[in-house]
């Protein structure tokens, strides 16, 4: 019965045309706000997915690092045990160190990353080669794969140049030296290829053979900066992390991909929630139209309310009728907003009508990704706002004493 009264009040023509106009203005405001929320949240999802895909090309699913210090030791027996761990698809030994590169006259600071032959089974750097080839060389001649921006900064032509890049790294355990050269080890790398993933990586990383760095840094054969691990398809990273942590003990720190980039992911989530809160406040402002519409409807239906009370209707029934009226307005606006927002996102996904300006982006148009959880969140938000906006007019209708003669 509550639904019948509420739906009839919404559909019926009012004596004052302004009530109908304000009601539909309220619906339109909620629809536009709902659509905007869906679009904005989907755009944030799109950018988040894009960033995660870029970082997953360089960062492994699991990374094992020392709990303290710069290097760790893993014996062949430990490596075999890690390889047999359920959920581990592959692993790669890695040594990282900052170095000075010299190609010509100008020195450039970069991060050298020495990897073994399993590296391409753990990450997808090879799939992001834009010039030359992925080749780290061997003990006869060590080669380098440079980031795109770093290649430009050095002035290297990886496809044609035969001139090596000279690498300088600090020597370990050197406390006294006569000349600066005595405190440095140096070697040469022959450029082989260029990768382009993300500016953070492109501008500072050089990938080479792990033996080259172990030799320069005077490391032991089992010594490394980290062990990068690829998870098997469908394996939960947190569960795999727990298994490896129990197996290795407290001398090692096991990190998931999220933990390797925790600050980045936290910032993205904070930005998304901040925008959601701001748009929700805008929806609250738009709900004032609904308050005015329902308040005028209460005045319009004074006679009906009096008759219902005379027939024995309780205050709770009157209140539920007008609360339901508010939910109808909010519900229609939400459904229209879902259609508008979802339709726009589908068009953007297929045709990319809103494009990113400039030529330095990896994508031409704003990426969007619709998540069912966002639709649920927006629906709950609008329903709460609708109930809150309807409460005062509904309460006024329920408690106010109305004289039939006055109507």
From TrEMBL:
It holds the Pfam family MacB_PCD. One of its GO terms (cellular component) is plasma membrane protein complex. Residues 25-246 form the MacB-like periplasmic core domain. It is found in: Cell membrane. Its main location: membrane. It comes from the Bacteria. Residues 277-397 form the ABC3 transporter permease C-terminal domain. The keyword Transmembrane applies. It is a multi-pass membrane protein. GO terms for biological process: lipoprotein localization to outer membrane. Keywords: Cell membrane, Membrane, Transmembrane, Transmembrane helix. InterPro entries: ABC3_permease_C (IPR003838), Lipoprotein-release_system (IPR051447), MacB_PCD (IPR025857). The keyword Membrane applies. The chain crosses the membrane at residues 21-44, 273-298, 318-351, 371-392. PANTHER family: LIPOPROTEIN-RELEASING SYSTEM TRANSMEMBRANE PROTEIN LOLE. Belongs to the ABC-4 integral membrane protein family. LolC/E subfamily. This is ABC transporter permease. The lineage of its organism: Bacteria, Pseudomonadati, Bacteroidota, Chitinophagia, Chitinophagales.
């Amino acid at each position: 019965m509550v639904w019948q009264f509420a739906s009839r009040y919404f559909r019926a023509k009012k004596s004052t045309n302004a009530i109908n106009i304000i009601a539909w203005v309220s619906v339109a405001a909620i629809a536009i706000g709902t659509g905007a929320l869906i679009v904005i949240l989907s755009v944030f999802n799109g950018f988040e997915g894009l960033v995660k895909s870029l970082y997953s090309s360089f960062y492994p699913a699991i990374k094992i690092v020392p709990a303290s210090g710069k290097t760790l030791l893993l014996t062949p027996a430990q490596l075999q045990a890690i390889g047999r761990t359920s959920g581990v698809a592959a692993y790669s030994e890695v040594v990282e160190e900052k170095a000075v590169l010299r190609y010509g006259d100008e020195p450039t600071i970069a991060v050298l990353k020495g990897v073994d032959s399993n590296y391409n089974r753990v990450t997808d750097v090879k799939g992001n080669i834009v010039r030359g080839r992925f080749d780290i060389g061997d003990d006869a001649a060590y080669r380098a794969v440079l980031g795109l921006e770093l290649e430009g900064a050095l002035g290297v032509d990886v496809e044609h140049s035969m001139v090596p890049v000279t690498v300088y790294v600090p020597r370990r355990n050197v406390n006294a030296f006569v000349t600066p050269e005595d405190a440095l080890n140096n070697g040469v790398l022959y450029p082989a290829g260029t990768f382009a993933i993300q500016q953070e990586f492109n501008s500072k990383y050089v990938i080479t053979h792990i033996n080259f760095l172990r030799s320069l840094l005077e490391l032991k054969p089992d010594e490394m900066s980290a062990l990068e691990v690829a998870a098997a398809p469908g394996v939960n990273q947190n569960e795999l992390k727990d298994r490896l942590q129990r197996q290795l003990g407290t001398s090692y720190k096991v990190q998931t991909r999220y933990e390797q980039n925790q600050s980045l992911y936290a910032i993205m989530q904070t930005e998304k929630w901040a925008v959601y809160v701001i748009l929700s406040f805008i929806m609250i402002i738009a709900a004032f139209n609904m308050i005015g519409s329902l308040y005028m409807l209460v005045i319009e239906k004074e006679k009906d309310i009096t008759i219902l009370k005379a027939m024995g209707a309780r205050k709770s029934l009157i209140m539920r009728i007008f609360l339901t009226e508010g939910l109808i307005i909010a519900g229609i606006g939400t459904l229209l907003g879902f259609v508008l927002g979802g339709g726009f996102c589908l068009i953007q996904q297929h045709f990319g009508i809103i494009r990113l300006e400039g030529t330095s982006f990896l994508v031409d148009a704003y990426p969007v990704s619709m998540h069912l959880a966002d639709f649920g969140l927006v629906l709950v938000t609008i329903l709460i706002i609708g109930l809150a906006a309807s409460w005062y007019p509904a309460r006024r209708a329920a408690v106010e004493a109305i004289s039939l003669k006055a109507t």
